[in-house]
Structure formats: C-alpha cells, structure tokens
Amino acid sequence: MDWGMKNRLSQLMPNGKCFFMPIDHGYFQGPTKGLERPGETIKPLLPYVDALFCTRGVLRSAIDPTNSKPIVLRASGCTSMVGKDLANEELTTSIEEIIRLNVAAVGISVFIGSEYEKETLKNLATLVNQCENYGIPVMAVTAVGKEMEKREARYLGLCCRIAAELGARVVKTYWCEKDFEKVIQGCPVPVIMAGGPKCETELEVLEFVHDGMQKGAVGLNLGRNVWQSPNPVGMAKALQAIVHQNVSVKEANEILIKTKEKKK
Length: 264
What we know:
CATH topology: TIM Barrel
Number of domains: 1
Number of helices: 12
Order of helices and strands: HEHHEHEEEHEHEHEHEHEHHH
Helix content: 40-55%
CATH class: Alpha Beta
Number of strands: 10
Distance between the termini: 48 Å
C-alpha cells in the first residue's frame, strides 16, 4: 500500500477504528428531517466523529473548509425515493473533482441482487480504477434499497466479499443479529456498520453497535440514529466510546444519560 493510501486511511481510521457521520441522505430523500441545515446539525457532533460522509453539494455549501473532519465523498446517485428504482445509480463525480475537493475517500452504493446489479458493480470497478491511481480509498456501500428483508448474513456476506474482490478498500454494510461474524470473516477488507432506519430506542442502537464491534466490525457509519436522536451529542459521545474505548453497553448508556442530564 502506497504512502498516500495509508495516510488517508489513517486519517479515517485512527488506531484502525472509525465513527463516520453520514449526512448524504438528501441525495435521494431531499430535505431529510434533521438535515434541513446540515452545517448546523453537525456542529455540536464534530468533536466525536472521525469523518463526514456527504455529497459535493453539501460539502461546498455547508462544511467549513478551514475546520473540517476528513471527508468521505459520495460519488454515486441519480435516483430518488419517488423514482422507479433506487438501485439505478450512476457515477456522479469525476476523479478531477475528487482530487480538487481533497477528500480522504469516496463512497459508492452497490445493489447486488437488484435489476441493476451489474451496472452498480461496474460503477464500483470504474471508480476503483480511477481512485487507485491517486491513492484514494473507495468505500463500497452494500445497499438494499427498499428490500429490508435482504439484511441477513448470507446476503450481506456475499455483497461484502464481491465489493472487496472488485477493489473496495472498505465496505459499509448492515449489522444483522444472526451470524454477523461470518460476514466479517468472509470479507478481506475492513467492514463498518451502517445505521439503516432509525431505531426504536437509544439503547437498541448502543446494543447493536457494541455487538457488531465485538464480532469484528472496525466501526460505524451512523446518521439518523444520531442526529435524529432527542440527545444527539450524548448519542455521539456514547458511540465514540464504544468504538474507540471499547466500553460496555451499560457504560455507554451511562455516558448518554449523563450528557442528557447536563443538557437539562
């Protein structure tokens, strides 16, 4: 691995662990609740995250370039919630733009098992071919669109392995309750956990993140379960402690509660 690639990955994953904050939801959802003004949303959360995952539009318009965390730039899109199929994505950002924005990595969705499986995997391969020339890591996002029933170990393991085989340096996938360790064991590159739909309780978030970390994930990429939380700063602090300090669910929950009390 060359110096530039190592340097960027070390920025994103200090000591091999990471907590990414995704704020890219608007690229297919529009003005998502909590992200109407993304720059304001993330200000109190920045001290607790390792990187931001966002589109170039939000990066330019809402992120302070003089005081920013490392950026993972979303490089796929062209679909929406009201469209026919979320899986019908295209590459949206050129390698020249990626370099111009000085990002630490890029992220792209792949929809394995969908009608557009080949096209999204081709997008991944194309982006890897371009970014490897400049030492820029590519994160593959194993998306399932609206088909939430696909969140089982056999499917997720297939997606992660294929993405790694095509050259992704990091893979983002969903946690699953059963056999998640098999997903990790079958993927030769680091795996980070996606948040998915907002969980019912804060404790539920802490429990699945802790379980996934214990089973081999190197970190997480959580958005809605943080910035849509009644206590977003407390949630961010608690998740950071699980990822970087290996605290228990009980200890993380205590951090969450104490932060809530201070807020009051």
